[in-house]
């Protein structure tokens, strides 16, 4: 049984709207995370709970309000437009939000239908569970259900709901909403809540800001190490906990390009692969602006507050670069990557970009001797390899074993799973979830999943599903 203790629901009423999920006609389980359910105490929940038709004892459903910069443009009031926070489960592993995504209209729906269709639900389930298995801080997927209703997008599609689990759903945009309202009291309450929930060791507002920046530096470096492109790094999609949240038009790079963009709505490449660290820095600057009034109280003047926050913010590139070196150092088998090793990694990436070589298979191939096979300019790789062999650790393979997955959620495979599901066959989705739960250990029978897309399988654009 889930033990609920709903701390967010005890915050002032202007933080949310109490609202129950809208019922659906015929809930049907598609994917279920039994291991996670056991950790949460939700093993006895069935499709009717995951669809929102039955509210479990102790839950206190609500929709959170927040704002955000979306592709750089300011939106003063967003919020959970198609999601409901059932409540917070308290377990021996910590406190976790249980969130129904696609649960119907809320006061923040902005003329949307509040629903999701099966495609984005399957994508988020598959990708978020892979990210967890790969060691990336992330929201997780507990269940995916069909609703028995149709939702209208370009065409009528089967409705679905994802049950998402997170350390919390508090975003940079949550702080921005109250700052825009000039509600300093709410910003202060929110900061205290975030500190208590996520960063209890942080001292004061500045310590909280430092902790959030460090968490984001670690997160983005891990994204980069997997060739992950989030696609919508809006401030309302940046969780202050340091978890990856909101898998919309995301994708993993096949043929490497630092300018890789997949999102159909990112026409200017704002959130391209290579831009993600600088966008994180920009988003964190927006958070810093929200904290100025709190620091002003602590330090006595606005000028001092801005200087102190700016000093912390300006450390982000250094924090990120240190994390990037650690991540990519491990990917090439270095136990203690130093600044002098950065050109070695960058030169390999440049060679991969020149050839459009497969990101995952080249790095995985460094440990099994197949990296050269994935490149066109093999003589250039041989010259690079001589430098690498002179630098790598004696036990380089051990360092690389947990840094380079054998298999990733290839976008074309996810699309194939979605199309099969639309035809009533969920077997590929189930297979992807199974294989990607152990991405560093691949059975021979699943080696077909490491292959990049054939020319007629390439998926050039991904979509958010709203």
Automatic annotation (TrEMBL):
It holds the Pfam family SelO. It catalyses: L-tyrosyl-[protein] + ATP = O-(5'-adenylyl)-L-tyrosyl-[protein] + diphosphate; L-histidyl-[protein] + UTP = N(tele)-(5'-uridylyl)-L-histidyl-[protein] + diphosphate; L-seryl-[protein] + ATP = 3-O-(5'-adenylyl)-L-seryl-[protein] + diphosphate; L-tyrosyl-[protein] + UTP = O-(5'-uridylyl)-L-tyrosyl-[protein] + diphosphate. It comes from the Bacteria. Mg(2+) binds at residues 237, 246. Its cofactor is Mg(2+); Mn(2+). One of its GO terms (molecular function) is magnesium ion binding. Keywords: ATP-binding, Magnesium, Manganese, Metal-binding, Nucleotide-binding, Nucleotidyltransferase, Transferase. InterPro entries: SelO. The active site is at residue 236. Its EC number is 2.7.7.-, 2.7.7.108. ATP binds at residues 79, 81-82, 101, 113-114, 164, 171, 246. Belongs to the SELO family. Nucleotidyltransferase involved in the post-translational modification of proteins. It can catalyze the addition of adenosine monophosphate (AMP) or uridine monophosphate (UMP) to a protein, resulting in modifications known as AMPylation and UMPylation. This is Protein nucleotidyltransferase YdiU. It comes from Celeribacter baekdonensis B30. The lineage of its organism: Bacteria, Pseudomonadati, Pseudomonadota, Alphaproteobacteria, Rhodobacterales. The gene is ydiU.
């Amino acid at each position: 049984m889930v033990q609920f203790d709903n701390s967010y629901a005890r915050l002032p009423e202007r933080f949310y709207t109490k609202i129950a999920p809208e019922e659906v006609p015929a809930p049907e389980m598609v994917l279920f995370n039994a291991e996670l359910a056991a950790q949460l105490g939700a093993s006895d929940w069935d499709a009717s709970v995951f669809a929102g038709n039955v509210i479990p004892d102790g839950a206190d459903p609500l929709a959170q309000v927040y704002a955000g910069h979306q592709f750089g443009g300011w939106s003063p009031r967003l919020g959970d437009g198609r999601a409901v926070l059932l409540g917070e489960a308290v377990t021996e592993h910590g406190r976790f939000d249980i969130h129904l995504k696609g649960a119907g209209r809320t006061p923040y729906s902005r003329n949307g239908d509040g629903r999701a269709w099966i495609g984005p639900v399957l994508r988020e389930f598959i990708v978020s569970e892979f990210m967890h298995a790969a060691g990336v801080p992330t929201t997780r997927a507990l269940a995916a259900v069909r609703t028995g209703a149709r939702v209208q997008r370009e065409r009528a599609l089967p409705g679905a709901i994802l049950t998402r689990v997170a350390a919390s759903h508090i975003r940079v945009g949550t702080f921005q909403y109250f700052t825009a309202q000039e509600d300093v009291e709410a910003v202060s309450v929110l900061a205290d809540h975030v500190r208590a929930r996520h960063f209890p060791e942080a001292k004061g507002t500045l310590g909280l800001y430092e902790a959030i920046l460090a968490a984001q530096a670690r997160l983005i470096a891990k994204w980069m190490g997997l060739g992950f492109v989030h696609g919508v790094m809006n401030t309302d999609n940046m969780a202050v906990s340091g978890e990856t949240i909101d898998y919309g038009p995301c994708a993993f790079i096949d043929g490497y390009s630092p300018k890789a963009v997949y999102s159909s709505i990112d026409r200017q490449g704002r959130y391209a692969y290579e831009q993600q660290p600088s966008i994180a820095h920009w988003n964190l600057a927006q958070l810093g602006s929200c904290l100025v009034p709190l620091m002003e109280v602590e330090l006595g003047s606005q000028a001092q507050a801005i200087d102190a926050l700016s000093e912390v913010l300006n450390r982000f590139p250094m924090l990120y670069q240190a994390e990037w070196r650690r991540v990519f150092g491990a990917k090439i088998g270095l136990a203690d990557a130093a600044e002098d090793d950065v050109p070695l990694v960058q030169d390999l990436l440049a060679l991969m970009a020149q050839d459009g070589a497969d990101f995952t298979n080249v790095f995985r191939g460094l440990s099994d001797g197949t990296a050269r096979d994935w490149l066109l300019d093999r003589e250039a790789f041989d010259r690079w390899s001589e430098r690498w062999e002179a630098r790598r650790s004696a036990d380089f393979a051990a360092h690389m074993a947990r840094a380079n997955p054998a298999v990733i959620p290839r976008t074309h495979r996810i699309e194939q799973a979605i199309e099969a599901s639309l035809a009533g066959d969920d077997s590929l989705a189930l297979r992807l979830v199974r294989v990607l739960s152990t991405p560093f250990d691949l059975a021979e029978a699943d080696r077909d999943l490491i292959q990049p897309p054939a020319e007629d399988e390439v998926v050039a654009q991904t979509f958010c599903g709203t």
